[in-house]
Design brief:
homodimer; alpha/beta; Aspartate Aminotransferase, domain 1; Aspartate Aminotransferase, domain 2; 2 domains; 7-stranded mixed sheet; two-stranded parallel ribbon; 13 helices; about 15% strand; globular
Chain lengths: ~375, ~375
Amino acid sequence: MKENLLLTPGPTKIPSEICSILGQPIIHHRTPQFQAMLKEVVEGLKYVFQTQNDVYLMAASGTGGMEASVCNLLSAGDKAITVEGGKFGERWTEICQAFGVQTHVIKVEWGQSVQAQQIKKVLDQDKTIKAVFITHCETSTGVTTDIKAIGQVVKNTNAVLVVDAVSSLGVIDLKTDEWNVDIVASASHKGFMLPPGLAFASVSPKAWKLIGTCKTPRYYFDFRKAKEAWGDTDTAFTPAISIVIGLTESLKRMKKMGLEPLFAYFARLAQGTRVAAKALGLKVFPQDNCVSNVLTAIVLPAQIDGNKLVKTMRDKYGVTVAGGQGQLKGKVVRFAHMGCLTEKDLIEGIACFEKVLQEMGYSFPAGSGVQAAQKFFEQPAVAV
Amino acid sequence: MKENLLLTPGPTKIPSEICSILGQPIIHHRTPQFQAMLKEVVEGLKYVFQTQNDVYLMAASGTGGMEASVCNLLSAGDKAITVEGGKFGERWTEICQAFGVQTHVIKVEWGQSVQAQQIKKVLDQDKTIKAVFITHCETSTGVTTDIKAIGQVVKNTNAVLVVDAVSSLGVIDLKTDEWNVDIVASASHKGFMLPPGLAFASVSPKAWKLIGTCKTPRYYFDFRKAKEAWGDTDTAFTPAISIVIGLTESLKRMKKMGLEPLFAYFARLAQGTRVAAKALGLKVFPQDNCVSNVLTAIVLPAQIDGNKLVKTMRDKYGVTVAGGQGQLKGKVVRFAHMGCLTEKDLIEGIACFEKVLQEMGYSFPAGSGVQAAQKFFEQPAVAV
């Protein structure tokens, strides 16, 4: 039997308890039973988002949540800042431009993160900019951006701060309210250990003011409709019922563990993976000052074809990791640290990675990656 | 143990084989394994849609598929016909108006269906109308509209014909190509026996021409992006993976049965339910010439509070039916005939309906509804 280990940064492995909930007979959404779940889910999301703001659910993938953020805030001709340091930063630009928003694009070399001062400079130069769109963890590169510092800059301006936290929420710290983030967009299939199909967005009072002035045509993603429906503990349109029910269980698990221990847990997985990469003589792609604990992008030796490596790991050994996207296509592999992944899962993944690297002709002391990770994980976890 | 019987017109009961697929570990969507499923699903959908047109999948509820139809076809200021004879017809108007489309609204009394000649008259008077939006089965009233006749009228004009087949597809006949329907929008949680969260749309060459001229800002629902991604057997954005996998099984079941026997099966369920209503001295809401086989809306005796009846059936006896919406609130109950529902399920539903009617003081010969349905179902099904 070939195993089937999913180490991709979304969808990520679903715990068996949640699988079993997803396989239960469905219930109707306009029932007190489901309304109670919706309430529980929204309360739980507020805990994970670390916010008192409204949080809305949409039957959509993460991009739907991102589009909702743009089309509810900005009208054609409005100005916004986007930051491109990877594929998902580029998506903010694409969405803004699809809606006729004038984008001031800050380009960052892939593997680096934007600095708050770069944002400040642009905002200082043009007071008419209405929104700043940032990617918390850039899943294509494994870079984390310092949202706290950017929040400090944006909060004193007229602009709202919108963060794509699709891959980061519930994995690394994101203090929505304390860090002055106006909209956080996320989705079900990363930190929340669920199938894709449910997007979330938190909306601050400052964002609501801008929403009130926005002329972009919208219906399905209209936050005003979501707010109105929530008055009756309802969603504006039929929700992704089974994922909402599964989410009650994910949130219970996350609450039980607590946010700080959860973030420490993933930080440890990430560190163990970085230690293994180093032992294999390989570099982690991002610069040290912005390396993410959400996923680790490892740079492959120049002679290794990354697409073939990913394919072999998956089709020969049943371990699915992600390859590179865009300019990193074929050049990196990406291991996720999210959801219910364990040290054991990552060691298995590294062992398989080593095996295929060897088969493809890269030479290194056999077992050195696994050994380094094991040694790292033998250290007791630091109490939080 | 209280049973949990779902007789609502979406979400509808999920077969246990599909439940068990939905509870399996998830796989990644950018794999040959999932691509093969996507291909199979699109081929299967073309069979059920009875079309050679493109069919696209979106992670969204049915309304997302409806919005996609509007925002890809029409620009602000364009003209369209909508038909309002229930809540879902009104939704076409709402979506069109949200996108600045000038709507010529044909109002039809609830319980009746629009006639092709009414559409023709409006199209003849104004040659600049670009689209006609119709509801195939109006789920709020249980009315079916004659799409074939409307297709005959619209095909000779510049306008495209768009049909909301969210509740009807796979339940009653809809010959997309033969009847000249340009866009059919549907979703996973009615005839396809799956959780909500996946929308579908078929797009004709005539629709593609109009799409090419459309200026409405769009991104997530952009059919051009869906078409481009499909070139690589991919979806534009992360699909609702688990529902797509479940759909492979629904489509197998539907293909195995064949469309004509499938439609005959639901027609029989619907007829049995209508016979039971009559035996209880109750009327079916729609006029005879447009009564739907997708669901049956039964008019309650004037003294019965429909909301209380639905609540009692659900909370006391575990049978969930739908109440009335909009102007029918509290006045009807709605029984679905779709997906994997059986004669036995409907007889159980009718028995529970009788029990609660009696408890609420409506007098009729006890058991007469169940008896009439049983007698009807004893007749051999007519071979198709």
